[in-house]
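Regression test case RT-17, inverse folding.

Input:
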């Protein structure tokens, strides 16, 4: 978080001296006001902007970085790209000596030709086997006809049958050999395709359009691709858009959400600021020297491509911003009078938080159905009964604690809010729940406090106000004060 500097304190002191010219003395009068010896320095309530932020540091990174390597081992024969070159998709960057791979292509082409010739030979063998089968079939038919007439011996008939069966077996054998030859052709074709792929891989091409930010080889250098592909080039895609990876402390990460506005600068351009948005909050913690941080990814434009990868960015993430709101100086929040006027009222609980008004507000903001409203009304009734039972028994109850409440009262309120969250989660749709969460986050900044103002006749009066967003200098006033109200920031006692 940003902290108040000594320079700001000196400015405040100078302003106090000027305001001292309008010192207000408060004396006891017939109205019963208690006199406060000394004088009060005031600052008026005004309108302006309030911004709360978290500071961090990080590094400028390209949106997409691609390491281009080689899947082949060999000697780099040619280089076509260098540092900072703008390259197109599929552009040739380098070439590995292709002679070995070109020779392998020729070899597999010859092996494929032999396999295809073998297929032709097996097809011819099948044709010959089929002719022999037809001849054996005719010979067997003649022998059977002669056997019926008694003009041929039994052995001659047996020989004809054997020749016929052998011709059938030859058909089966030659068909199997043909299938084997065809499979060999497919194998050789695959080997040829692989050889051609290896030959194509000797040309190192860019997979994206981008800028060469690193080159690790030169012509004549041998690259060895074994278990891991060696990186030859590193490309960054479109440096007109970058991202900043900022390390946010664990104490501040809870207030950071996606979409928040970010302003950052780099040492190379100290007088220039760049704008961005929180894109991602990475859940993995980074622990170093017992300090836990979380990486927040910020997307930003890079006009003129002046932001270079690796630059250190000084980041300011705006976790809350409001403009043209009533605000009071933070010094007023710390002021306590030495003597409290008797008629000054103590800070009262915020009005309008009864179950009926809460129900009406939720029904309007979340667009509750009649059934949802009835369920919520019943739950509010249960909460009131629990609160009353707790008070009667001397317990804490579930009502909102006063300003000076104990830890037990704070815990009771937290339990009440947790119970309300559970009820809401059960009855709301996803869209309604998102609206409820957003409203809950906005209400987290709201708090009640008693401030002191100088009223008519210079009387010191208490003002019960509802405060909102704060930054280093001012706090938003939601209700309780008007523009120009003189809020006391310091009491000056007379010397001696």
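Golden output:
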């Amino acid at each position: 978080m940003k902290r108040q500097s000594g320079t700001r304190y000196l400015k405040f002191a100078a302003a106090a001296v000027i305001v001292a010219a309008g010192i207000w003395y408060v004396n006891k009068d017939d109205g019963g006001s208690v006199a406060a010896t000394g004088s009060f320095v005031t600052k008026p309530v005004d309108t302006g902007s309030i911004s709360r932020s978290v500071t961090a540091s990080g590094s400028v990174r390209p949106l997409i970085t691609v390491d281009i390597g080689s899947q082949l081992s060999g000697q780099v024969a040619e280089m076509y790209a260098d540092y900072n070159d703008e390259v197109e998709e599929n552009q040739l960057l380098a070439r590995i000596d292709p002679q070995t791979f070109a020779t392998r292509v020729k070899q597999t082409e010859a092996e494929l030709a032999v396999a295809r010739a073998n297929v032709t030979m097996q097809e011819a063998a099948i044709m010959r086997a089929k002719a022999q089968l037809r001849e054996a079939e005719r010979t067997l038919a003649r022998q059977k006809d002669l056997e019926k007439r008694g003009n041929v011996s039994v052995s001659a008939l047996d020989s004809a049958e054997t020749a016929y069966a052998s011709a059938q077996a030859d058909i089966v054998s030659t068909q199997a050999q043909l299938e084997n030859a065809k499979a060999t052709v497919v194998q050789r074709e695959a080997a040829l395709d692989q050889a051609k792929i290896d030959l194509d891989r000797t040309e190192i091409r860019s997979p994206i359009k981008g800028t060469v930010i690193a080159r690790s080889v030169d012509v004549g250098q041998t690259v060895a691709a074994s278990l891991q592909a060696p990186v030859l080039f590193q490309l960054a895609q479109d440096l007109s858009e970058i991202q900043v990876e900022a390390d946010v402390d664990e104490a501040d990460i809870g207030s950071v959400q996606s979409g928040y506005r970010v302003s950052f600068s780099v040492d190379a351009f100290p007088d220039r600021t760049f704008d961005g948005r929180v894109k991602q909050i990475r859940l993995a913690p980074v622990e170093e020297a017992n300090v836990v941080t979380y990486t927040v990814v910020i997307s930003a434009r890079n006009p003129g491509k002046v932001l270079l990868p690796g630059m250190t960015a000084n980041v300011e993430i705006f976790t809350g911003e409001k403009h043209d709101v009533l605000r009071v100086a933070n010094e007023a929040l710390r002021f306590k009078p030495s003597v409290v006027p008797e008629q000054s009222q103590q800070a009262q609980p915020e009005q309008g938080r009864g179950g009926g008004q809460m129900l009406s507000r939720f029904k309007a903001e979340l667009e509750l159905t009649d059934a949802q409203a009835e369920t919520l009304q019943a739950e509010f009734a249960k909460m009131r009964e629990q609160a009353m039972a707790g008070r009667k028994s001397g317990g804490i109850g579930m009502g909102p604690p006063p300003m000076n409440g104990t830890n037990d009262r704070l815990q009771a309120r937290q339990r009440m809010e947790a119970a309300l969250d559970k009820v809401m989660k059960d009855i709301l749709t996803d869209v309604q729940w998102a609206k409820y969460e957003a409203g809950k986050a906005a209400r987290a900044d709201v708090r009640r406090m008693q401030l002191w103002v100088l009223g008519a006749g210079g009387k010191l009066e208490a003002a019960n106000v509802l405060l909102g967003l704060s930054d280093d200098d001012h706090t938003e006033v939601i209700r309780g004060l008007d523009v120009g109200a003189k809020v006391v920031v310091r009491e000056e006692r007379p010397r001696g």
